[in-house]
Amino acid sequence: MDSFQGADTLTDAIFTRVMAVNLTVPIHMMRAVLPFMKAKKHGAIINVCSKASISGAVAGLAYTTSKHGLVGFLSRWKLFLPLDRKEKRENRKG
Questions:
Q1: Could you give the CA distance from residue 27 to residue 73 in angstroms, rounded to a whole number?
Q2: Which residues are known to be catalytic?
Q3: Contacts of 58 (CB under 8 A, 6+ apart)
Q4: Where are the domains of the chain?
Q5: pLDDT tens digits, one per residue of 8-32
């Protein structure tokens, strides 16, 4: 998605696009469904974070940053989500 570009070659346009697709849109989608999940007191959200979410050595700078950001958002999200937490699964195998 960012051609494995590093800080010296990454353009603002590519960084903005990658962050929009991999971080901003998933966050907007999760926020959009939250009122329905709260009303039902149940719901499930599945995000794909890939190995880039736990390692800085498998993708480009923008992609890795976006996936780390998504994991951070999800970590905070699940702490305060007032839903039934009987089933909480997290797969970080990539």
A1: 8
A2: 63, 67
A3: 50, 51, 52, 64
A4: 12-80
A5: 999 999 999 999 999 999 999 999 9
